[in-house]
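Practice problem 4.
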């Protein structure tokens, strides 16, 4: 049985005052049967951990090296030290705005796994790639180049986030999500073997309370990586509930 996961990526949003949203999630979902991960900006990781002992706290990026002269970067081991259980790696906003390649993402994911963090590795095609019918080859290439050989169903999660569906209100069609997730499941198993056959596959891109239940019915969807709708308790809690009852 695959344990489902609802992960909230706050991106560069939230202030100290936003910790009250995490407090409310903790109060409402402390006994959840699914994994609930909140990924606030790095300075909020430690206070978030203190507010939510029964939820998982995740970071949004880490450096590929263990330590050293890398001004502004944060190591995976420090993330772990301040209470993070997971880290998002290779989000499309970092692939695009920070020119992160799949090769770099694999190095970062390896650093995360070595530090004992769960790596949530993001992949997804752009609108141009979908229109050119390159979606599955792009996903294959990203999986081949981004996933460490040491990735297993226990230590790694893959988030399929079509770039054109992020923050746009455009949600991929159920058939598009199903096709991509089935393809990823097969590709990951081919690449890494039985140890990765049950790796969790999250969908991300304009997930909201209103569409969550429909998305969670789709074959091979084990949860969601939620951006905008994870910022407020009122928006994220119904998505968690939809996954708990899916
Ligand atoms: P939205 O849910 O705001 O579309 O963002 C998705 C995302 O990028 C999560 O990582």
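Answer key:
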């Amino acid at each position: 049985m695959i344990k489902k996961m609802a992960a909230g990526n706050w991106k560069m949003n939230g202030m100290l005052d936003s910790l009250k949203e995490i407090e409310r999630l903790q109060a409402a979902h402390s006994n959840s049967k699914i994994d609930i991960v909140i990924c606030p900006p790095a300075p909020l990781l430690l206070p978030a951990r203190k507010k939510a002992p029964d939820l998982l706290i995740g970071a949004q990026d880490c450096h590929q090296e263990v330590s050293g002269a890398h001004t502004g970067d944060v190591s995976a081991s420090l993330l772990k030290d301040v209470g993070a259980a997971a880290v998002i790696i290779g989000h499309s906003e970092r692939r695009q705005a920070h020119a992160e390649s799949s090769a770099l993402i694999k190095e970062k994911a390896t650093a995360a796994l070595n530090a004992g963090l769960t790596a949530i590795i993001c992949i997804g095609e752009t609108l141009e790639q979908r229109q050119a019918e390159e979606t599955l080859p792009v996903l294959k290439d990203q999986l081949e180049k981004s996933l460490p050989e040491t990735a297993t169903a226990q230590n790694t999660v893959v988030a399929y986030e079509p770039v054109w569906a992020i923050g746009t209100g455009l949600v991929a069609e159920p058939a598009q999500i199903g096709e991509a997730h089935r393809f990823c499941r097969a590709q990951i198993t081919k690449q890494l073997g039985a140890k990765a056959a049950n790796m969790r596959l999250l969908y991300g891109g304009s997930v909201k309370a209103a569409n969550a239940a429909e998305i969670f019915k789709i074959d091979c969807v084990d949860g969601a990586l939620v951006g905008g709708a994870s910022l407020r308790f009122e928006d994220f809690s119904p998505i968690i509930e939809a996954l708990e009852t899916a």
